[in-house]
Design goal:
single chain, 267 residues, alpha+beta, 2 domains, three-stranded antiparallel beta sheet, 14 strands
Length: 267
């Protein structure tokens, strides 16, 4: 009796074997606990068929089971890589960092030389970490641009990132949530000055930046700037030097963290 058995691995792919009347889930029963422990599930989608294969099919089944195991773990590793959170701190990016350090740590495919831009500066040559992953991308400017040594600044920016500060703050966090975590209102610059939306002080709150003598952290909040914020509230926090996060207009706008930088003393 012949038929078809479909095997699905973690919902990613279907393996079909119809040349042999055998339930392909049976030869890999011993592998299932290992796969399940790694978060990989193999599920039979077809009927259990009567046994009737010739002995020559056994090597094929063993090979298939081994391939499923290897492929499944490769998928699991890829998923884990995508979910990995990174530490964005002065210890990860110290003042004596070099591009060769990054290459040794993250691999050649994840570190490239590229043009980057400052807040108000033209493009210049720097280093980009994880250039093909928007949620892991890091831009690095160097004091010694020729040898790529001694960082002048390290920055992440955008809607979301897997990089997270030691105090837990990450891109995309909103002002109200950060204020609750701090326990008190904090101070940030207005949205019209250079370094707009940058946290100036955490006040009496629980959050503190992990600054050192050779490294500092700068966190910048931004409104949406897409017309969805009430212009009446925006006008109230554009003029002036700095405001409390408890200001009614700040609370109404509820800006989000859109850039985090590590800064270093000028050499």
């Amino acid at each position: 009796m012949r038929g078809t058995v479909d095997l699905q691995v973690s919902g990613f792919a279907v393996i079909r074997q119809s040349d042999c009347a055998i339930d392909l889930t049976r030869p890999i029963q011993k592998l299932l606990p290992r796969l399940k422990a790694g978060g990989i599930i193999i599920q039979s989608l077809g009927p259990n068929l009567q046994r009737g294969c010739s002995p020559v099919d056994a090597p094929f089944v063993k090979s298939l089971a081994a391939l499923l195991l290897l492929w499944g773990f490769s998928v699991l590793n890829a998923q884990q890589d995508q979910n990995t959170r990174f530490d964005f701190s002065c210890s990860t990016f110290p003042a004596n960092l070099s591009e060769s350090d990054l290459l040794s740590r993250y691999g050649q495919g994840n570190v490239i030389t590229a043009m980057i831009t400052g807040a108000d500066d033209p493009s210049f040559e720097g280093t980009v970490l994880f250039p093909n992953q928007d949620d892991a991308r890091v831009e690095i400017a160097w004091y010694d641009a020729k040898t790529k040594q001694s960082p002048a600044g390290v920055r992440i920016r955008g809607q979301h990132s897997r990089w997270r500060l030691p105090n837990g703050i990450a891109l995309g966090d909103d002002l109200l949530g950060v204020e609750r975590r701090n326990g008190f209102p904090f101070r940030l610059s207005s949205f019209s000055v250079e370094g707009q939306g940058t946290v100036r002080s955490w006040g009496r709150g629980r959050i503190q930046n992990a600054d050192t003598e050779r490294c500092g952290i700068k966190i910048s909040f931004q409104p949406n700037w897409d017309g969805t914020d009430d212009p009446m509230f925006l006008r109230q926090v554009i003029r002036g030097l700095e405001f409390s996060s408890g200001h009614p207009a700040m609370q109404a706008i509820n800006p989000r963290v859109r850039a985090i930088s590590i800064t270093y003393p000028v050499k």
